[in-house]
Amino acid sequence: MQDRQSHAAELLRNAGVLPVITVHTLDEARAIADALLEGGLNTLELTLRTPVAVDALAMLKRERPGIVIGAGTVLNADNIRASVDAGADFLVTPGTPAALADALVDAAIPAVPGAATPTEFMALRERGFRNCKLFPASAVGGLAMLKGLAGPLHDMRFCPTGGISESNAAEFLAQPNVLCIGGSWMLDKAWIAAGDWTRVRETAARAAQIVRAARAA
After folding, report:
1. What are 8-43's pLDDT values in tens digits?
2. Which of 10, 61, 133, 166 is an active site residue?
3. Which of 56, 125, 143, 201 sits CB 3.0–4.6 Å from 29 for a disulfide?
């Protein structure tokens, strides 16, 4: 467990920005992944919200070996098994009830469990988790929540997701207890619908630059 948590921290820190994507076809998955990679973002969270999600994850791991993929919206043990079998590098949950937390402890790959309150994070900490997703970040206090958690949970690190945009990304990344941030601002639905991969690539490039600037500060 400790090794898997260390690996989770490394994956998140290396990512800096974790694009959260939902795909409806394999071709869409390829196009989105390529635009993000070309923009300088090589790690993404692919949500298990569509029938094609698991197949898309497996395809991208086969065809784009340079990409790191977290399976997102993991809700149960069946999702864990399907994600691991498809080749996911790590698991991400939106929330983590006790049964799911226990399944993540036993998972073969690193997990980043989601939670929204100090009590939930304390319960995850007791199970050995030190790297968690704060979700939905802005709705539960955003920066103020992260600053509040830093004292009592000083050994925990977070990936806040929800309500983060290009305009406030740097402020979140500047928090000492933030490993990376999750978001979908570089994947505007109108751009995806229009196949405007140039806009996706350019916005991804700006996100990558925000990470570089934050790490250099």
Report:
1. 999 999 999 999 999 999 999 999 999 999 999 999
2. 133
3. 56
